[in-house]
Write a structure and sequence with these properties.
The chain has two domains: about 5-115, Probable inorganic polyphosphate/atp-NAD kinase, domain 1 (Rossmann fold), CATH 3.40.50; about 130-285, Sandwich (Tumour Suppressor Smad4), CATH 2.60.200. The chain has eight helices and 18 strands. The protein has helices at about 20-30, 45-55, 70-80, 95-100, 105-115, 140-150, 155-170, 230-240, and strands spanning about 5-10, 35-40, 60-65, 85-90, 115-125, 130, 135-140, 175-180, 185-190, 190-195, 200-205, 205, 220, 250-255, 255-260, 265-270, 275-280, 280-295. β8 (about 175-180) and β9 form a beta hairpin. The model has no long low-confidence stretch (mean pLDDT about 85).
Length: about 300
């Protein structure tokens, strides 16, 4: 069992699902489960700094309370300081918590912190930055950028995302890249390149959940033959944070790869967050680099 003495719970107070009542409820649950943990409300901009300050205060574990972006940011600090990561899924989609089999119910998730065990899982890395779920180029980063522009004009998150999806579909852009992996090379024009941290189950062309988080592989998906109708389905499914069902998906697995495009700077999404990187993009897996607290029965 992981020691939760002086654990730090980094609560993303800017998350849409987090309210004053959520903070009160979390405090009550921490006391009810007898956790010696400090709840630290933070905004997304100060999340990494607050996590590092908690480490300097000699906390024994870091807990990310928020969505996938929050979890990824806190995980980066946890890895750097060899601390276990706890997760309280308070975001919109919570893909990582689902794949790690962490309960979505807040009471059960707090109970996991109190009684769970730490398991070692892989993380993905691109140009020195980690990701827990997936990274992508092309369609999805473009949608995130468009959504950001819409929110700056005062539109709500889901309205902004819907307008961004419409804009991306209307533009029908493709990216031309060269992908080099272990025993793999592909020069291709595609609406997207999707890189999963471990392999997602694919049924009827739908990228779904990950059966394992410690397989030591990256999964690369492209759709070179996708036309506008398939693009429409992809854009709609991307609104839910994943790729949807369509034909023509090419999939391969590797432990590392390099992606080169025509531009010096590349738009990339990491766990649903928009980033800009210098090309080429060097991806690799870091096997069992992160310890995550999960329910005991699911740690076996």
């Amino acid at each position: 069992m992981v020691s939760m003495r002086r654990a730090a719970i980094l609560l993303n107070s800017s998350a849409r699902s987090v309210t004053d009542s959520t903070i009160r409820e979390l405090g009550e649950l921490v006391r009810a489960h007898r956790l010696e943990a400090e709840i630290i409300p933070v905004t997304g901009d100060s999340l990494a700094t607050s996590a590092r300050l908690a480490v300097e205060s000699a906390c024994t574990a870091l807990v990310a309370a928020g969505g996938d972006g929050t979890v990824s940011t806190v995980a980066d600090v946890a890895i750097a300081h060899d601390l276990a990561l706890g997760v309280l899924p308070l975001g919109t989609l919570n893909h990582f918590a689902r794949d790690a089999r962490i309960p979505s119910d807040l009471d059960a998730a707090v109970a996991t912190l109190a009684c769970g065990e730490a398991v070692a899982i892989d993380v993905g890395e691109v140009n020195g930055r980690i990701f827990l779920n997936n990274s992508s180029l092309g369609m999805y980063p473009r949608m995130l950028w468009e959504r950001e522009q819409q929110t700056r004009h005062g539109r709500q998150k889901w309205t902004a995302l819907a307008l961004a999806a419409l804009r991306v579909w209307q533009e029908d852009r493709r990216i031309s890249v060269t992908i080099r992996g272990c025993e793999y090379r592909r020069a291709v024009s595609t609406p997207f390149v999707f890189i999963g941290n471990n392999e997602y189950a694919i049924e009827d062309g739908r990228i779904d959940t990950r059966p394992a988080l410690d397989g030591g592989r990256l999964q690369v998906c492209i759709a070179p033959d996708a036309g506008r109708s398939r693009m429409a389905r992809m854009v709609l499914s991307a609104l839910a944070g994943r790729l949807g069902r369509f034909d023509g998906l090419e999939v391969t697995a590797t432990s590392e790869l390099t992606i080169t495009g025509p531009a010096r700077r590349v738009s990339v999404s990491l766990d649903g967050e928009f980033q800009i990187f210098e090309s080429p993009l060097a991806y690799k897996t870091r096997p069992r680099a992160l310890h995550v607290i999960v329910p005991k029965e699911r740690a076996r």
